[in-house]
Predict the structure.
Amino acid sequence: MKKRLSLTIASLCLAWLPFGSRPADALDSNPTDNANQLTESEKRSGWELLFDGSSTDGWRNYKRDGVSDGWKVEDGALIRHSKGAGDLITEEKFDTFELSLQYKISKEGNSGLMFHVVEGDGRPYYTGPEIQIQDNKDGHDPQKAGWLYQLYKPGNAPGEDTPIDATRPAGQWNELYLRIANDQCSVCMNGVRYYNFKLGDKTWKDRVAASKFAKWEGFGEAGKGHLCLQDHGDVVAYRNIKVRRLTDGQPVKQPIDGKLGMKSVLAFPNLQWDQWEAVDDAGQVRPLRLIELTYAKEMPERLYTISQRGMIWTFENKPDVTESQLVLDLRDKVYDWQKRGANEQGLLGLAMHPEFKTNQKFYVYYSLADAKKSIISCFTMSKDNPHQADPESEVVLMEIDQPFQNHNGGSIEFGPDGYLYIGLGDGGLRNDPHSAGQDLGKILGKILRIDVDNAGNGKNYAIPADNPFVKTSGALPEIYAYGLRNPWRIAFDPASGRLWAGDVGQELWEEVDVITKGGNYGWSSREGTHPFGNQPVPESGSEPIEPVWEYDHEIGKSITGGRVYRSDRNADLKGKYIYADYVTGSVWALSYDPETGKATRNDQVLPDSIPVLAFGQDAAGEVYYLTNSVRGECIYRFDAAK
């Protein structure tokens, strides 16, 4: 008999007593001892430091040979501190580039960042467009921080009649990102995209004509020039000033140490999918989209896989296998991922119980077809057919309200401790609108850990006694780790027991995390190692754990978390974390030092672009990648190129 117990956001928050909060930068993403350094990924992908933290090398005053005494370097920051400082420019000129810097403005203070500045007869802003920098709370200029002065500003926040403001107050560090390229320019403030624009197009020209800059011939037309930090008479500090040069039509440098030059091989070339058709009853082509591939302990001879549409199969783990068996068809229960906006919904997780050989139980995570909910439930195999589940055996463990269609997470894994781990995104849309990531009283944006072998408190599961927040007032006891945006996907290393996650970023950064008990992974006060937004951080929060690896959105835009390769078949991959980016199709192998908690090497695995949806693994530690196919050819392995 099917049972269902509801675990909604509302019910989970009934006992919630709000924690106090701290400023958004209380969890400083870049403390002074880590400032003005490139990350390992940045070093490999072409970023350069424009400020070394100890000198003004590479800078000078506008139309001067040196730097005035009004600028000083102190505690790793470049500070405009006294009168007569003057505008500061880079010695080099830049045409197309990305720039990232952090600034700390004084109360009521004002400054600015200009680009394509030409040293002519007038002031820097006669030629160089300016990104405003100021104290948005007490500053006096109607042009707010992050706005392209009199030209572009962010749109209104949802439900608000004022433009988005992602800045942190005076006295706190903010991170400004600027991209200038011929295809598109953009500005982000603390990781939040403010606007896009294109230099020289009709909209640009019309806005310049309507601004005060129309009277200066050649404004914004140089195409190449100095970067300029404006002296507006107020104290302001800068640090972490980084630039990457862009070349039209050329991708940026990959953050890799080497190329393994491996090739993709269809792992089961003769496999047919039981009861799957590439064309549905309406005559529409439906590619097979596999999301998980796993096995049951003590049963290495078989594999189990799921389609995002809602079908579960099993088949023999041998290269020449031809037949699969449909274990369970959940298409009537599962939301169709091909519906509008549903790309991140469907049947998203499968985990075989550690004692599956004897108890025949397995667990699934799916988006409910008729409600905005994610379901985690248990099924039992049929007594009459060892390769078929009893569809009436479903026991629902959790129903989780999902406010939006994206960021549902969905991967589930049993850990070495026998508990079930569940990866949940922050609920979707953008900018963590429900502030779930850092809130221990909300279930979204977390890794959960539950005991499926016991029940308690009216639920079809129990809480492990050593879960990290069982004794924290107002916190949900299911939480194992928090501060995740959309973990896609999580996986245990079968050798070390270490839990890995690929967490999908928003505008600028993708990250790889090693998940530890009670760990805070930063979202949504941080994206990767970088500040994000300005939401207050609950006082209960711990210091964020930095990702073991991150890469920016010129490299890729949607990480596919992977698995640690443990098979003896490929020595070049053994012990490495295999992961990918779905948008760019890159596949990498990351080497990790558990002593330092950092990646030591990143290698390109395949020379080709492959849109990897997920990775699977068999009992021998072999890692497979999964993708779309209208032919049903979805499971591939890695072979050394001959």
About this structure: The first strand starts at residue 3 and ends at 4. The chain is about 5% helix and 35% strand. The CA atoms of residues 278 and 452 lie 36 Å apart. Residues 1-20 have pLDDT under 50 and may be disordered.
